[in-house]
């Protein structure tokens, strides 16, 4: 994408990720925008003299004029380069007994007095560890990711007007850290039903995770790719509105979203099975019954933790 002009939607999404202190490498992975282009916009934002919130509040034409001034010599951010060169060392030291991130950050500041603050230092270090430590392939951070999927089996209600049974796909959204999940029967998987379902999931959680992970469903991804999937424009706008990042699983790699796959299995056993003898005459009635059972599942104590999903969610997420 290095030779293509960015749309204002892409530029705004890039600014949101920069505001969240995401690395250039991570922004490239999430958006497909070339690293050099991301670095250029990072410098332009810095040279504008405005905070990221102020830039995002500007109308498109003002933001475009501010970020596309005549070419000038721009000072590179040496902090990122210095820290990137030391991340391997810090990750190795973190495994040693009694060593903490705070100690490493204090040592880092001795070498780089004008370096990153503690929170940003931890973000870069955590990301590096998750990407490079083979012993930590499935570590989930609180509030970091929401996995979404549709269950393969459907639920039904009887439409008294059309005089027929209506099959409903069930959308499931899972937070891997706490295993808390949200579910909702939908009359179809099309975007006009998927997006309101996702909105309801955000309300149920009472917040927005940093990332939304789905498989390569056509409603979300227009061009599947192992490294740079292309998302639908409507989903990109939805993600920008909620200030979250869209991610897609690798092709033919169901373990990438194993948490929501497990939630599907639990929903079959604890919700579908208990609804097997119920007969509903409206979608509202079907959803109401589903929600009651969902609350019971999320409040049930998990044997492996001695706590319910809601308790783990409330404590950490």
Can you lay out the helices and strands and say which pair or pack?
Layout: H1 8-19, H2 24-31, H3 35-47, H4 52-57, H5 60-67, H6 78-94, H7 101-111, H8 118-132, E1 145-150, E2 155-159, E3 164-174, E4 181-186, H9 191-205, E5 211-214, E6 221-223, E7 230-231, H10 233-242, E8 245-248, H11 258-272, H12 283-299, E9 301-302, E10 307-308, H13 309-316
Parallel strand pairs: 1-5, 5-8
Antiparallel strand pairs: 1-3, 2-3, 3-4, 6-7, 9-10
Features of the shown structure:
317 residues, alpha+beta, Nucleotidyltransferase, domain 5, 3 domains, 6-stranded mixed beta sheet, 14% strand, globular
Structure description:
The protein folds into three domains: 60 residues; 55 residues; 122 residues, Nucleotidyltransferase, domain 5, CATH 3.30.420. The protein starts with 7 loop residues before the first helix and ends with a helix. With 317 residues, the chain is α+β, with helices and mostly antiparallel strands. Strands 1, 2, 3, 4, 5 and 8 form a six-stranded mixed beta sheet that branches. The model has no long low-confidence stretch (mean pLDDT 87). 28% of the residues are buried. It is built from 13 helices and ten strands.
């Amino acid at each position: 994408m290095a030779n293509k002009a960015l749309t204002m939607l892409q530029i705004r999404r890039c600014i949101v990720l920069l505001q969240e202190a995401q690395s250039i490498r991570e922004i490239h992975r999430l958006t497909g925008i070339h690293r050099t282009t991301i670095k250029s916009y990072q410098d332009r934002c810095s040279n504008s003299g405005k905070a990221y919130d102020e830039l995002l509040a500007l109308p498109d034409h003002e933001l475009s004029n501010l970020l596309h001034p005549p070419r000038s010599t721009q000072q590179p951010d040496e902090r990122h380069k210095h820290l990137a060169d030391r991340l391997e060392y810090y990750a190795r030291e973190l495994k040693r007994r009694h060593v903490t991130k705070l100690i490493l950050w204090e040592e880092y500041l001795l070498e780089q007095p004008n370096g990153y603050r503690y929170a940003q230092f931890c973000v870069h270090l955590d990301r590096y560890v998750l990407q490079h430590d083979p012993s930590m392939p499935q570590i989930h951070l609180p509030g970091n990711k929401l996995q979404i999927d549709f269950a393969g089996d459907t639920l039904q209600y009887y439409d008294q007007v059309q005089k027929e049974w209506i099959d409903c796909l069930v959308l499931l959204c899972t937070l891997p850290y706490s295993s808390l999940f949200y579910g909702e029967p939908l009359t179809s998987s099309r975007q006009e039903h998927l997006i309101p379902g996702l909105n309801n999931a955000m309300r149920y959680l009472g917040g927005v995770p940093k990332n939304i992970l789905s498989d390569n469903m056509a409603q979300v991804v227009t061009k599947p790719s192992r490294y740079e999937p292309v998302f639908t424009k409507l989903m990109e706008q939805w993600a920008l509105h909620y200030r979250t990042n869209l991610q897609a699983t690798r092709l033919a790699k169901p373990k990438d979203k194993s948490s929501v796959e497990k939630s599907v299995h639990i929903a079959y056993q604890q919700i579908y099975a208990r609804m097997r003898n119920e007969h509903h005459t409206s979608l509202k009635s079907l959803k109401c019954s589903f929600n009651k059972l969902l609350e019971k599942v999320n409040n049930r104590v998990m044997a492996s933790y001695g706590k319910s999903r809601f308790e783990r969610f409330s404590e950490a997420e």
